[in-house]
Amino acid sequence: MKREFLTTKDGSVTIHLPDWNEQYHSKHGAIIEAKHVFIESGFGYLVSSEKNQSDSLAILEIGFGTGLNTFLTFLYAEKHGVKIHYTGVDAFPVIASEITQLNYPELLAASSEVFEKLHQTPWGSPEIISKFFTLTKRKQLFSDIKDKEKFHLIYFDAFGARVQPELWTESIFKAMYEALKFDGVLVTYSAKGSVRRAMQAVGFTVERLPGPPGKRHMLRAVKL
Question: Which of 31, 191, 193, 199 has the fewest CB atoms in 10 Å of its CB?
């Protein structure tokens, strides 16, 4: 499938798939969207929650992709001293020549060496990135995820339901529900009614939140 680079409205680059008319991140701002949906509404929310009594957090990302969400999480963890065990799942990883076109370290005034390391670490085994951050990358279909009560937080960042509806079904969200610990949280950029209903059908308590630029709403789901 043809792949192109697109500069989004906040200056950050994403990968565009013209055959699907779909991007890895919002064209209204890749970094802005990732910060709003996953860091502020997910990671930051969970860290500040009174229910969170853990001295470390286990995070699952559905769609490792460009590594932007992982990189932002690393930076947040380092800044706030939060220990993270991060698992990124992707069946079709971004290739090395594409990674060099992504300008996230420059725009975030952060280490390009760390960003490159996130992509260069081997798939399938835990790799220590820093004293606060351990990364495991799994080359795996989302439908094959079988983890049980392992994660505090899930970043659900799959391609949209318009192009891959099979990733937004009750069966997928059942696997997500089972992968979360009690009081675990899932956040996603999508606010479609069918997505919300699929989450609720498997047991999630779902709230609709203000979305990032270009989207009116997003969803946050909790396993209670």
Answer: 193
Written as tens digits, the pLDDT of the chain (224 aa) is 899 999 999 999 999 999 999 999 999 999 999 999 999 999 999 998 876 777 899 999 999 999 999 999 999 999 999 999 999 999 999 999 999 999 999 999 999 999 999 999 999 999 999 999 999 999 999 999 999 999 999 999 999 999 999 999 999 999 999 999 999 999 999 999 999 999 999 999 999 999 999 999 999 999 99
Q: For residue 132, what are the contacts with CB-CB under 8 A and spacing of at least 6? A: 77, 78, 81, 82, 83, 84
User: Closest Cα partner for 184 from 173, 197, 194?
Assistant: 173
CA distance 197 to 202: 9
Amino acid present at 183: D
CATH code for 37-222? 3.40.50.150
Which residues, including other chains, have CB under 8 Å from residue 166's CB and lie 6 or more apart? 143, 172
- Residue 161 backbone dihedrals phi, psi, to 5 degrees: -65, -25
Choose among 158, 178, 155: nearest CA to 166: 158
Q: Is this model's pTM higher than 0.85 or not?
A: yes
